[in-house]
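== Sequence, structure tokens ==
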Amino acid sequence: MLKQTPLNAAHRELGAKMVDFGGWDMPVHYGSQLSEHHAVRNGCGLFDVSHMLSLDIKGANVRPFLRRLVANNVDKLQISGKALYSCMLNEAGGVIDDLIIYFMDENWFRLVVNAGTADKDLAWMEQCNADWGMGLTLMPRRDLAMIAIQGPDATRVLNEALPGVDGLTASLKPFSAAAMGEMFIARTGYTGEDGFEAMVLAKSAPFFWKALMEAGGKPIGLGARDTLRLEAGMNLYGQDMDETASPLESGLAWTVDLKSGRDFVGRKALEASEVTKQLSGLLLLDKGVLRSHQKVLTKNGDGEITSGTFSPTLQQSIALARIPLGIAPGDEVEVEIRDKKLKARVVKYPFVRNGKILIA
């Protein structure tokens, strides 16, 4: 039996094509994935991301716990509502999950973790909490639904759907959040556009969703979510990194704090590892479509595409690929596609941000 979000009935009423996504019954599109992609780049799209887990960690030792648990440094979080993106590593330096951490107060941090790894993440955190004697309370918030409102028109749509919230949306800086009772609004997203991720009580989600649609927001499925995030150069757990891949070889070195003396799970392994690969962008020069697991042939050895798609914005196939060090933007490589070797150019990603194409 697939798990359902509080908006499952709303998706079906809209005629969504539903698929099994990591054990959840989720909409892949509502008719046209291409139209949905452009709706986010040019207007405002609505995403049901309630399958992701919001997790509250409370107690006197929550900051010391997170200092040790994740690779980024939570001491950067000093202002209430400020968010931090980080990886949670295993002892070998592999990525257990990537997550967002919100600092609310010294006794309360909120984390948002991926749906497919939620049970594994929670078990790992509970084990660390017990092993380190932190005495914290970990509270999975399955009573909350989460809706992402994304695109250049996102602020207007949210303000219209929630009268009186315009003061908050005007003052909320990127990668910050504010709580209003049980409602939680963050200026974050997974599309490369301005926007928000709003958490509301599950029972209120269908009414909120309807209000957002009436304000002009367009429902968007998982298909467009993937093309949008790839254009924006954002990693997907399970493809661009996992427990076998180091963040240092996954384009996530910027999320790893090795400068402070703080010890964290996986630090020793990262410091002892030899980095031989890098995550780079690829732009296909020949006709075809780049897909994950395709082999990339370079002058310094072979690599592999981790995520690939046809970009609706660029009208060209793009990819993220883990390739040998020493291959720079502008270099040409070959990609093996159906027994053919097609030419691609290495580029610096992201490919698209805020509706603008960033590569030549």
Remarks:
- Residues 118-131 form the longest helix (14 residues).
- The mean pLDDT is 97.
- The domain at 1-272 is CATH 3.30.1360.120 (Gyrase A; domain 2).
- The two ends are 47 Å apart (CA to CA).
